[in-house]
Amino acid sequence: MSETTQTKQTSSDALAQHATPYGTIPPASPLPSRKPVSLPRLQEMQNRGEKIAMLTAYDATFAAVADAAGVECILVGDSLGMVCQGRVSTVGVSLETMRYHTECVARGLHRAQATSWLIADMPFASYQESREQAIRNASVLMQAGAHMVKLEGGGWTTDTVRFLVERGIPVCAHLGLTPQTVHALGGYRVQGKGDVAAQQLRQHALALQDAGATMVVLEMVPHVIASQLTSELPRCATIGIGAGNGTAGQVLVMHDLLGVNLGKMARFVRNFMQDQNSVRDAIAAYVAAVKDGSFPNNALHAW
Predict the structure, then answer these.
(1) Domain assignment present for 263
(2) Which three-class secondary structure state does DSSP give residue 152?
(3) Rounded to two decimals, what is the model's pTM?
(4) Within a domain: residue 31?
(5) Backbone φ, ψ for residue 92 (5° rounding)
(6) Is residue 146 part of a domain?
(7) Non-local CB neighbours of 175 within 8 Å, separated by 6+ positions
């Protein structure tokens, strides 16, 4: 046996020793190529104008693939109610469901690279009652492996955000279209249109930053307004979805990115799987497009 053949055989034997059934994570995931993402690193990215790539994930394997593909922030979104459970909205998602999926994603990350920043949605009715209810339920998600929790709404949420941050729980806010209150908003409509609505959005965003929120998702907000807010929020990174390319970062639902959702594609979605050979390649293409500013295209994906 030649030296080259022997080396290949040894390498193959080593992989076989570490193989696991059902195509699970360790053999498929390379060694970490970056340091774990942290709040200071995200702030540094914002300061130097490097776009932040965020993506949803709901299980261990897809979370590990997203991490390996370069996604900085993984969101365990309550969108799982629609894409995983088949619900018509996110309202029916329970705290226990969010805890379960957050644990799954955290396990996947720790079995692989474990470099992405992990955010978990606080579901409907898990924080509206009181600040005390909010910290109890946020603690459940943090103990499940989240690094940060996300909650929807402005105005009344400011005190809750401050209460959580002062007690060591990082918070991502969510303004514009807030899916948990879609019935009160009259459907999936663009928010912040008109001077009055835009000014209220601005006031809420500034108050949330002052309360300690270090991220804010802006969903279906006119791109001019989202860009203006980004410049006014130096300590709170704006993450857009249907808010144009002037935000500090972008987020998409994994199933939308892969073109496998159950309904009509929203205007702000792009199918990144279309020209790729693997899920990892599709996610890497999304990260690259966010970084170089080619996605989203304001003429195609924004208002």
Answers:
(1) yes
(2) strand
(3) 0.91
(4) no
(5) -85, 0
(6) yes
(7) 153, 154, 191, 201, 204, 205, 208, 216, 217, 218, 219, 221
What are 218's two structure tokens?
A: 């802006």
pLDDT tens, position by position, 128-176: 999 999 999 999 999 999 999 999 999 999 999 999 999 999 999 999 9
Structure tokens, 72:
């900085």
Q: Are 282 and 62 in contact (CB under 8 A)?
A: no
What is the C-alpha separation between 149 and 170, in angstroms, rounded?
A: 7
Residue 213: domain span: 39-301
Active site residue 72: no
Query: Which residues, at least 6 apart from 187, have a Cβ–Cβ distance to it below 8 Å?
Result: none
Residue among 44, 152, 219, 232 flagged as catalytic: 219
Is residue 30 one of the residues assigned to a domain? no
**Three-state SS annotation for 193-246:** CCHHHHHHHHHHHHHHHHHCCCEEEEECCCHHHHHHHHHHCCCCEEEEECCCCC
